[in-house]
Design goal:
Elements (H helix, E strand, L loop, with lengths): L10 H13 L3 E2 H12 L16 H17 L3 H6 L6 H11 L2 H18 L2 H4 L5 E10 L8 E2 L6 E10 L4 E7 L5 H10 L9 E4 L6 H9 L3 E4 L9 E3 L4 H4 L7 E4 L2 H6 L1 H13 L4 H7 L8 H23 L1 H24 L12 H30 L10 H6 L8 E2 L20
Parallel strand pairs: 1-10, 2-6, 6-7, 8-9
Antiparallel strand pairs: 2-4, 3-4, 4-5
Helix pairs in contact: 2-16, 3-5, 3-16, 6-16, 8-13, 9-14
Length: about 425
Amino acid sequence: MTPVQEQKPPPNIEKLRHEIFERWSSISLLDVLKETDLRVGLTSIFQSVGTREYLDKEELQIRLLLCLYAYGSNAGLKRVASGNKEIKYQDLRYIRRRYINSSNLRQALTQLANTIFEIRQSELWGEDLTSCACDSKKFGAWDQNLMSEWHVRYRGPGVMIYWHLDKKAACIFSQLKTCTSSEVASMIEGVLHHCTNMDVQSGYVDSAGQTIIGFAFSYILNFDLLPRLKTIGRQKLAVVEIGDKEQYDQLVDILDRPIRWDLIIEQYDEIIKYTTALRLGTANAEEILRRFTKDNKNHPTYQALIELGRAVKTIFLCRYLQSESLRQEIHEGLNVVERWNGVNDFIFYGKKGEINSNFKEEQELSMLCLSLLQTSLVYMNTLMLQTLLNTPKWQNRLTPEDKRALSPLIHAHINPYGLFLLDIRKRLDLSPPKP
């Protein structure tokens, strides 16, 4: 993950953002979650694990929203309870244990993502629901657990959260991973098991999200792997047959050995077996890809996947070098997920953005609640932008360039911290306690 420098938006987009700030300035992030729930009905998904419910429906809704906000902002249940005189910390702990788990959180995220797809106006956002951008971000975490690892590049103990977003910043899948886990496996897992209405046919990744094996599996799984290659100058093109190098004498320096088609044919049934296990979810993508590494270079199926991947990657490299529009498309897709990662820090501000738990379940809840808060922000910003753009002042005003720069990942009008009430006449009582 490499931070992308934010370019100055077109004048119309800058004016649009300013108008949003003027009209909806200082909206609480908690109110964003509340309004999303009132429109989409997210809290109705969270059912008690017990057989009876004694809480009033409205009271339960309030406590659920406070719990989701506490985890999603990383403020914690104690801090949220201390800011609300009517609700105690024990009340929120009860709601967390009885109502909130990773299963119903993922259902809520799926429903919210599908709602965003439904309410979008295609003339503003386009109709592409076949492409997603994939990338990870490192979050600091306590180190006395099985998930946290030392990250070589970003330093410090932590975990990785791997995101899948559509082109207009709706999160369709998120995964909690270790720092040394395979990004290729995470990419495949999200494309296959995102559970939204998207039909993912292509995935944008950075250099860490692609390998030769990744190209092979993406081809068999029928989606297009589109990486932004950092080492494009060192890539090689495979040739079809032995004599092909002589036909391209100007490309000798970048041509590699011929592809062994016979090996692919010989191992075709095994390739299909492993691919089917990935598609049906009978085996974890991380476990399958761990089989096919250089440590098992003599494995015949691994050798066949290498040959197939070389063929698919060669086709991609030719497309990538020939088509400027494809290179722009990949960069635009990855810029969306980079901006998403930037908003993570704005929302997940509590405790310096560190996941303060040694339990995997708690870490996953923090990840999913963060995703829910941020996707709620995307949902409400989409409605706000469409409300303004449908007024006579803005109708037919945006150019194609403006529409490309239109993004729901804006937050200058959002206040994630709550209210700061100051009573200058009220003093702290420091008198000695009465005997």
